[in-house]
Amino acid sequence: MSQLRTIQDETLPTWLPRLAGNKGPRFLQIADALQAAVEGGSLNPGDRLPPQRQLAAQLDVDLTTVTRAYDEARRRKLLEGRGARGTYVAAPKVELSAILDLSMNTPPPPDGVDFDDMLKQGLSQVLMRADNASLMTYHLGGGSDSDRKAGATWLAPMLGQLDSGQLVVCPGAQAAIAALILALTAPGDVILAEPTTYPGLRAAATQFGRHIVAVEADKYGMVPDMLEEACRRHQARLAYLNPTCQNPTAITIPERRRKELAGIAKRWNIRIVEDDPYWLLADAPPPPIATFAPEHVAYISTLSKCLTPGLRVAFVLVRDPQERGRFLAALRSFSLMAAPLSAALATQWILDGSADGLLAGVRQEARLRQRMARDLLAGRYKGLGDGLHVWLELPAYWNASQLARAAASDGIAVTPAEAFAGGSGSVNAIRISLGSIKDRGRLQAGLQRLSRLLAQRPESFEQLSASSAPC
């Protein structure tokens, strides 16, 4: 055997280091070596790699290890397959889109998490353990028993031990909000919300013939006295709050105020829709409002904002059985169920711990990006160190729409405050989303360009744009 290993070592590709047991998974060691060779020039576009079986024999590893290494290298866009001719080093990919998208709130890709492997392993476990027929049929009860039990596990850090029978599994938070509006209000009713709020609320309310009335907010969120006055004046039946790392202002309502808002809900017998997608990303957030007024709050927690957007699964807690029945009926009127395969994958990840690992990676990456934004946007930064976005109040010489247009012409997409206006007015600010650009270096470049733009006056930018325009 020692002679065989000597022969194998002598025939190893020059770019490949010897594998070490203390440097992480071997497939990642191989992929990292490939990447270093491409970046260092010892492997060039068009070079043919050894067949997988040959390389596995040379390294004295199993074929699966090399297959996973090549798959990882393809994911990094280092390799391309050419059928029977083999595997080759890929030519550099040209970035066709010059737009740096800072307009969409999505979780950033966490460093050190092999998402492809996590997805493959999760789906493999689902298909191995589940009744495959149940993954391809209707689920009429708001999710399977196992999905609702996983939801109770996921919500335990926020709400403690729950009766999983009180949960509904939904295809995302937007569907949940729309169904709650249908279930808990009637056409023409008023829905109370903060002046700057999630635009999906307004979209759903408008479609269903409900009216959004803005309730004054300050640096701590919705003002309790103003909520009470609005309840008295409008006889509202529903209020909407996004109390943790609020979208878009990044405000987290403190515990004392949450208790006050819950008390008003009890006194006026209104329902609060507590849309809380960022609670698990926040640093020591207060208890949800639902803990202070359990029977008056419908609590929504979506996985799309803290794990990955493609996982269109939200857990909704509605304690009152009659209201839960109306909610389910409303949900079925336009979105019968969460896709069973997605729900089963979410359940698998929650129960085997993968979701916690992914969440920890997203949280760490979000913190790094928040620090980057704070450093690059010094003096204007309004983020609070948590969540996926920054709320940037603008200097008086820019207005939000004007800056958004100027940023777009400079290849950067941001969202002006008007998109979030729930009342007649709007603050002069933009939301900057930190997760939608995968590469941290490109995000840094975009924030630097945005910072330079903010330092200019609009007329200076217009003159510069005109002078650089092509003839």
Automatic annotation (TrEMBL):
Residue ranges occupied by any HTH gntR-type domain in the UniProt entry: 24-92
Isomerase is among the record's keywords: no
Gene3D superfamilies cross-referenced by the UniProt entry: Type I PLP-dependent aspartate aminotransferase-like (Major domain), Winged helix-like DNA-binding domain superfamily/Winged helix DNA-binding domain
GO molecular function list: transaminase activity
Entries under Pfam families matching the protein: Aminotran_1_2, GntR
Keywords from the named record: Aminotransferase, DNA-binding, Pyridoxal phosphate, Transcription, Transcription regulation, Transferase
Family (UniProt): In the C-terminal section; belongs to the class-I pyridoxal-phosphate-dependent aminotransferase family.
PANTHER family named among the record's database cross-references: HTH-TYPE TRANSCRIPTIONAL REGULATORY PROTEIN GABR
Protein name per Swiss-Prot or TrEMBL: PLP-dependent aminotransferase family protein
Lineage: Bacteria, Pseudomonadati, Pseudomonadota, Betaproteobacteria, Burkholderiales
